[in-house]
Amino acid sequence: xxxxxxxxxxxxxxxxxxxxxxxxxxxxxxxxxxxxxxxxxxxxxxxxxxxxxxxxxxxxxxxxxxxxxxxxxxxxxxxxxxxxxxxxxxxxxxxxxxxxxxxxxxxxxxxxxxxxxxxxxxxxxxxxxxxxxxxxxxxxxxxxxxxxxxxxxxxxxxxxxxxxxxxxxxxxxxxxxxxxxxxxxxxxxxxxxxxxxxxxxxxxxxxxxxxxxxxxxxxxxxxxxxxxxxxxxxxxxxxxxx
Length: 242
Description:
Layout: H1 2-13, H2 16-34, H3 50-68, H4 70-78, H5 80-86, H6 91-110, H7 114-123, H8 132-157, H9 163-185, H10 194-200, H11 202-210, H12 216-238
């Protein structure tokens, strides 16, 4: 698993596309945070990173599939997956190695955003007048959200050889998992099930963590969600032996 992990990291960071993807994420979040009037911190009147944590999940919907789409699809397209499968590696070694590599890349992309927190901390009329607990909770929420989207992206990448199809399917599934249940719950005929449907969606649990409240129910939800898609991916890879 460790060899797969480092192989994926090396392959990603030797590609120009990798740096372009990470730069695009940081550029867009920076624009929303400091430039665009409706979301700029400078127009808030209080010290907070709400706009960053509100926009980041929607950027993740595109960023993470872009990172994970090549994980298994490229191996199948180049014919290297068969070679990988003949090595003394279990399917779990392959799945977890690639999953952790993709998740690590997302976390590395998030590290530079800590400067946003430092800036707001320093720029407040009263220095340090920012809810640090909520910020930490939001970052934990983003990492758990990244875990869920990465598991979805890896599953989509296991379905075939075409990276574009993997990317598109991962975007659709990620968006539906994040906000689709909220949309369905708003249907008048389903009002009686609104709370249940909302609880099934990722957004409800992400918003809870963003308030700085580390509820074990939210942690269990994200871990279970990620584990479910990893199990499905492992099952899909194992189907080649049937």
